[in-house]
Each structure stands twice: as structure tokens, then as C-alpha cells.
Amino acid sequence: MTMGLNIFTFSRNLSIVTYLLSVAFLLISFQAFARYDYNSNCRQAMQSILDLKFRDARVFIANEKTVHPDNGYAIFLEHYADAIELIVTEEEELYERLIDNFEDRMDRMNKLDDGSPDNRWLQAEILFHTGLAQIKYGSRFGGATKLMSSYRKTREHRQKYPDFWQNRKLTGIFNIILDYIPPFMRWAADMFGYSGNAELGLFQLRQYCDDAAATPGFAEEGVMMAALGYKLTWGEPEGFAFLAGQPESMQSKTLVKYLYASAATYTYRNDLALSLLSDIRREDLQVNFYHLDYITGRCKLNHLEPDAAVYLQKYLDEFPGLDYKKDVCNRLSFHFLVHGEMERYREYREMTGRVGQELRDRDQEAVLESRSGYDPHPGLLRARLLCDGGYFEEAMQVLLAIRPDEMNTPPFRLEFLYRKGRILQLSGHPAEAILELTACFEQGEKFPYTFACRSALYLGKIYEESKDSAKAAEWYEKCIGVYSTSHTTEGIREMASRALKRLK
Fold first, then answer.
1. Tens digits of per-residue pLDDT, 370-385?
2. Which domain holds residue 439?
């Protein structure tokens, strides 16, 4: 009897132990699942962020934290919402919030680190965005340190989990950044032997886009990142074609639509850009998207519309950041010049040198133009703006209406040849364009203006498109060689150098 009782007791205890172990296993499994659960709350938060609906996004994040307080994706999305809002608005208090929350978010992610592939990837993302923000706001050493830490985590993670598709985003971005790294950060990359490959990086971002297609939220972000990859590598025509080929569900997201409009402006599709911008319902946005005014003002200026100044001035007055303010002042001076308001033209021409900063290429170019030592010719300026908008026939009519005796100074004569060559090139007349651009180069290579250097670059492009690699390389080398004056922007030579590498 005692023995039977013992057997019964043992059996019952074993059942209890088995039950408890099963429960424990389920709890552990649930905990692991909850820690990295990209669920409905997270998906809706991600989509809201990309639609610039940050209040909605934070409601979804708060709901998720209530249900799963240790979900790593909720921690990441808190950070991601702050980072994207900062990028869009450049409001300094948002920068302070991002920095203030950084250590806490990284600590929380470290406490969740159970060897899951999600953890290190999410940590790398948080480090990356914070590092970029610090560099932009003047803390270059701290920012560079975080970017290097993000890079190391990404590289190690890719080696450990080669098939983890989320790795491809930061891997691609780093390949582009390290290939196009600015001079003030080159020392850090050289110190650690880091190098990039922009072409490979763009391919990886396209892979990320393809892999993310089945995951709502990341699908839209994948399209955005691929579009940014094209933009960062000066591949606007390819970027435009990529965005134009996306389904409407992707194009409708605010940030994607903005990038689509931006690509349209850079590919001489001004009317399309204005149409896309008008489709963005500003009243639905939960943030001040100042750049909508900037790009709308640029597009309206390209068509010589009288209200262009309204949008450009609004950006200048309200945008709290510094980017493109020199460019806006320069464009406002153009607006008033073509409309014959010379006093206001001179006001904004002088203002170009005082406002903003010179980190962006367009801001640098604005300063160079404002210090050129001569006022633009109104007819040449009209032709330039119309050409930038893709109104090639109108631009050529304006150009040909200029009297020859008005072109008797070197800068006007050279610009006339250059503008005519570019209009012919862009409107599908390469043979005629070659004649004008060659004349511009030959007459202008000894003058301190950018026209000869630019002409050489586009002659290289014409020959490259016609599969004449030898001629293309010759003109790219001439473009680099004529770069002997401070009046020429760095970007022209850089594009020629990269084109040469591509040919080789």
C-alpha cells in the first residue's frame, strides 16, 4: 500500500512538474515573442510615421507598451518617430529629446539582449539615427563615434546572420555614405580602415526594398530607402523611374510622394512635381513639413509664376533649420530680377551670404552665384529657369529672342552657349548640343566661371550615352582638369571623377 501510494504520489508530482515546465516554456516563448513582436500596433505606428502622423504613431506605440512593455520594436519605434520628425522639421527641441532619450533606449535594448537577431539590428538603427543627428547639430566626434558603433554592429550582425534581410538597409546606407563621405569625416573612416561601394550599396537598398515588400510599414520604408539611395548617388533619372513604377499604395505615403515630387523636379518634370505636391493634404499632417513650401516655390519659380515668392518666403521665415536658406534667398533674388524688381533683387542677393549655412551643395552654389561679381542677364535667367522645369521649347524661344549685342561680355557669351547646349541636349538633339557645349568649353576654360567645367561634364555624358567611352573619358578628364578655380563647385569634379571610374 505504501509502495502504491508512493508510486501514485510520484506520478502526480511528475505530472505537476511536467505541467509547470510546460507553463514555464510557454511563458518563456511568449516573452521572447513579445520582446520582438512586429505586430498590428507596430505596423500601424510605422505606417503613421511615414505618413507624418506622429500623434497617431505615438498612440499605437503607447498601446503596444501597455500590452508588451518589453517589446523591442516599441522601443525602436519611439526612437524612429523622434528621428523622422527631427529630420522633417529640424526643430531643435526635437534634437534635444532624441539625445535625452538615447541612453535610456539603448539601456532598455541591452537589457532585452537575449541573442536574438532583432536586438543588435535595432540597436544599430538607434545608434545610426542618433549619430547622424549629432553630426548635423555640431557634435561631430560624438556623432562619428555612434556611426562607427552602428557600422560595427551592422557588419558583425551581417556576418552572423547573412540571411537576415533587415541587415541590408544599414549595410547599403553605409556603403553609400563611406563612398561619398564628406572630408570632415574622412579621418574617422581612414583610421579604422572603413570603405564603401556606392553601387553595391544601392543594390543592397533595392534588395531591402524587395525583401520588405511583404511586411506593411517596412514595405513603404523600403521604397523610401531605395529612392534615397538613388538620390544620394546622383541617380535621379533611375530614382524617378523606380518611384514611377511603384503601386499607388506606395506612392500615396507622404514621404514617398515627397521624394517622388523631388525626383520629378530633378528630371525636368515640373508640372508633375507640382501635381504630386498638391496631392499632399497638409491639413492631415501632424507636423510642420516646411520643405513642401521650399520645393513648391522652386517649381513655381521654374515656370516663372508670380506666387513663387510666397512659398519661398514662407520657408525662409518659418523653417527653424539652416539648410537651403541660402538657396532660397538666391532663388528669391532670381524671382525679383525676372520680374524687374531690382531693389528687392539686390536685397536678397546680399542676404544670400548672411543666412543659413553652406553644408548643402545648393547652398554652396548659391553663395558662389551671389559673389560672381556680375548680375545675371534676365533673358538668360528666364531660359535657365524654364529649362530646369522641363519647358525646353519655351526656354529656347526666350534664349533666341536675346539680341547678340547683349552677349558681348564673357560671362553672358559663355552662359548663352552653355544654356543653348543644355536645352538641345535635354530636348533630344545631342549632335547640336555637342557644337554649343564644345564652343563654350573652348572659349571659357581660361575664365573663372563654371560654364566650361559644366560643359565638359555634359559632353562626357553625351558621349557616354552614345557608347563612345573614349570620347566620354576625354571630356570627363577635361572637366576635372579645368577645375582650377574656386568659382567651380566641388560637385562637378566629383561627378566627372565617378563617371571615369564607372567607365573603367
1. 988 889 999 999 999 9
2. 409-504
